[in-house]
Amino acid sequence: IIRNTEVNPSGKWIAFKELPSGQRWHPLYRQRCEKVLLKLADENTSLFSDVAGLFGKRMEIAGITADRITIHYPLPKLPVLICYTGWENGFDSNLTLYYDENAEEIVNIESIYSLAVGMTIMIEKIMRRHG
After folding, report:
1. Burial (CB count within 10 angstroms: exposed 0-12, middle 13-18, buried 19+), residue 97
2. The pLDDT of residue 18 is above 80
3. Which one, 29, 65, 72, 110, has the greatest CB density within 10 A?
4. Are strands 57-58 and 13-15 parallel, antiparallel or unpaired?
5. Which strand ranges, in their side-by-side order, compose the sheet holding 57-58?
6. How many Cα atoms occupy the beta-carbon half-sphere of 50 within 13 Å?
7. Ordered DSSP codes for 9-34
8. DSSP helix/strand/coil, 92
9. Average pLDDT over residues 62-81
10. Cα(72)–Cα(112) distance, integer angstroms
11. What is the spatial distance between Cα 78 and Cα 56, in angstroms, rounded to a whole number?
């Protein structure tokens, strides 16, 4: 799982598919994580924001535009941004997870994928139970 404990996050955010091995994993990742989270956020934006806020901290990140951005740490050196923008004026809603550009140097891509799916399942189960 852990590749290098000496590498630290750089602070530069990229989408999963921009990680060195992300393109290969992206179709499955998109289906299992981002599409599921987007559907949940669209169905109940307020509850989604509350649940994401239970495990992360709401923040603003320079260069990333979204209605809601929360940062999560599934591992101490693996920050993940969940960025959601709701439907507005004919524009579709959007949800993207961003990772630090050094994520794959710290943890292998399979682990990044597994952690993202785990976060998705956790958020989905809580929302289904309380929604």
Report:
1. buried
2. yes
3. 29
4. unpaired
5. 13-15, 94-100, 78-85, 68-75, 57-58
6. 8
7. --S-EEEGGGSTTHHHHHHHHIIIII
8. coil
9. 95
10. 13
11. 13
